Fold:
Amino acid sequence: MAVFTVGPIIGSLVISFTDWNLLSEPGWVGLDNYARLATDPEFINAVNVTVTYVIFGVPIFQVTGLLVALLLNLVLPGMRIFRTIMFLPTVLSGVAVAVLWQQLLSSEGAVNQILRMLPGWAIPAVIVIGVWGVGAGAIIYLAGLQNVPPQLYEQATIDGAGPIRTFFAITLPMLTPTLLFTVLTGIIGAFQVFDMAFILGGPKGGVGGSLSFYLLYVWGQAFGNGRLGYASALSWVFVIACAVVVILILRTADRWVFDESESR
Amino acid sequence: MTLQTIGRRRRPGTRTIAWRAVAYVALIAMSATILLPLGWMLTTALKPDFAPVFTPTPQWFPTTDWEWNNFARALLDPARPFWRYTLNTVFIVTMNIVGTAFARLRFRGRETLFAILIITMLIPWQALLIPQFLLFYNLGWYGTMLPLIVPSFFGNAFFIFLIRQYIRSIPVELELAARIDGCNQWQVFRHIVLPLIRPVLMVCAVFVFLDSWNDLLGPLVYLIRDEDFTVAIGIANMVTSREPHLNLLMAANLIMMIPATLLYFLAQKQLVGGIASVGLKG
Structure:
């Protein structure tokens, strides 16, 4: 275990201070790789693409995932079939889904007719595909919904609360722990888009870098251009940025996440 | 659950029926958005070579074309031997499952390693990609399947964490009772713990299958020879080639989707339960 993780993690940090490509001996360049980031337009573009996707994609996925879960939580005949269908995209490979959607989104494809009205279609397209596969998040929400004690709903009905009031007063607060988890994993997942960008935009990240997601850029630098030192620095910036976002969210969590042990 | 509450009311009036109708419309619309693209893909896969794929009115399944041998052609195409890619993928997947199983057995009782494990779980794999690549490169494993197989024999921190949590939920009394009946450590594990943790092992096996079957980045980094390629790379190459035959591309794509879909239907309960429990226990 340690050989495959702890060793490499230290190695990665060390490599990020060198100008190593596989052909030459590594030379120590100190913080040069990190300094170069500020003036690398492709890096700035990759950050832009990725952050835009996170900012727009994550809230959309959360809301649609929750809505789907609310629907799937209804007690209706035939619900098992609907659940099965909705969760199906979860197991399909990113590559296969991307190929399917690439065709649907191609210039003659059906979906593209709608999307073309949006300026800068690349990121919206990836978000649309993400919504199509929102079932994975919905499973987790569904589990959360089924853990809400039914007495709370009965009590709310007795107190005369309507469906909307019940949702905001009971369902949503009781779901906040689930929400924290799905927001965190959702953000981390959104930062890590790779398969989709690779298939839709190719190794170079699409026309004008419109699909140059961060990981694709790291991969291109490391294994396309062989700049292992620079790519390691890119990885570390990525890891630190992710860690900062996760810590920020966890810091605010006690303000909005309902903790059952506190209320007792 | 707001709608559910309404559905539960004692007197099913017109409002209830109206709500149910709305719910069903929404459910059917959602299911259609999932199924229609998949149906379109199957339709395209079954078309003859020069039939127009994009018609003014999109064609959905079923249509008049039934070129089933497109699947055989996609599998046997000498330029892109998907049967070979499939075998390669199956091999890697099998080795990964075997490897994970091994790691499970070896792990038991090693509580001291647990802290390190948790730390490794928190490190994103992106930071490890390059140094791991260098490690395997220096071992001379670049261009072979070994980098895609060997790590799983050492266990995946996430699965170990999952299984450990599960083992901890087994009452100690069971173990004590077995001890009193004269079981040794191995027998306790074999006859008490193993049968009880079977569900979580299933979940892990399913996840390992899906992860390695669907993996693109790993094979992309480590595999260089065409005869080693996995289905994921094969399809990716097909997309970037000059004139992809869309019908064959879609057939290959379906070939990639079929095992995961079958597994999903067979192991749906474990899979959904697994994702949900992982979600809640964090």
